[in-house]
């Protein structure tokens, strides 16, 4: 698979250019993710989406082992199908990250994207939402642009699952992770429980 064979290796190589810190972890490794095929109904007819699924279970043991060894786990978002573990499913990376954050008991989930965050009235740049409660986001979700829905749904999943904060930030901004984590106001949009 491209995620495990190429993308993951490229990310690990980029991190390791600064020291041997990163290790690739596939969603299939040690049962990290378990997936279920996703179906869709179009005009009342069930449509086969192929090898696309949703994360239904997480065992964070493989990630915890990497963290305990002082490594940065680079996780690819694939999962064995729960009904046929020999079949690999592509799962949404944002949803997989949210499920992993919940399983790890993370303090915060940060999702990188190519926009500044959530806009109440896209593309009005003045409508950027800096922080939002989960109940407000849940009400706003159906009206969002389609590309932002999976990211904001992942933030909701994380916060609903016990992660105290989740954020969407623009990964194109230099040092965006540092700005989000080590400044008072952060950048992008932060989601907190209601």
UniProtKB/TrEMBL annotation:
Occurrences of domain Aspartate/glutamate/uridylate kinase (ranges): 3-170
GO MF entries: acetylglutamate kinase activity; ATP binding
Pathway this chain belongs to: Amino-acid biosynthesis; L-arginine biosynthesis; N(2)-acetyl-L-ornithine from L-glutamate: step 2/4
Catalytic activity: N-acetyl-L-glutamate + ATP = N-acetyl-L-glutamyl 5-phosphate + ADP
Signal sequence region: none
Domain of life of the source: Bacteria
GO BP: L-arginine biosynthetic process
Pfam families per UniProt: AA_kinase
EC numbers for this chain: 2.7.2.8
Keyword annotations: ATP-binding, Kinase, Nucleotide-binding, Transferase
InterPro entries assigned: AceGlu_kinase-like_sf, Asp/Glu/Uridylate_kinase, Glu/AcGlu_kinase
Coiled-coil blocks: none
Name of the protein in question: acetylglutamate kinase
Source organism (scientific name): Clavibacter michiganensis subsp. michiganensis
Gene for this chain: argB
């Amino acid at each position: 698979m491209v995620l495990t064979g190429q993308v993951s290796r490229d990310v690990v190589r980029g991190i390791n250019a600064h020291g041997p810190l990163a290790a690739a972890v596939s969603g299939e490794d040690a049962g990290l993710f378990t997936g279920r095929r996703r179906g869709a109904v179009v005009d009342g007819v069930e449509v086969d989406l192929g090898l696309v699924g949703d994360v239904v279970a997480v065992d964070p043991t493989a990630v915890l082992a990497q963290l305990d060894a002082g490594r940065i786990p680079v996780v690819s978002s694939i999962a064995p199908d729960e009904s046929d573990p020999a079949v690999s499913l592509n799962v949404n990376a944002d949803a997989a990250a949210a499920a992993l954050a919940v399983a790890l008991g993370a303090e915060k989930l940060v999702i990188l994207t190519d926009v500044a965050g959530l806009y109440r009235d896209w593309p009005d740049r003045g409508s950027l939402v800096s922080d939002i409660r989960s109940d407000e986001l849940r009400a706003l979700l159906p009206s969002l642009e389609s590309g932002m829905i999976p990211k904001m749904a992942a933030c909701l999943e994380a916060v609903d699952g016990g992660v105290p904060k989740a954020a969407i930030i623009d990964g194109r901004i230099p040092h965006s992770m540092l700005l989000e984590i080590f400044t008072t106001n952060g950048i992008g949009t932060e989601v907190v429980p209601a």
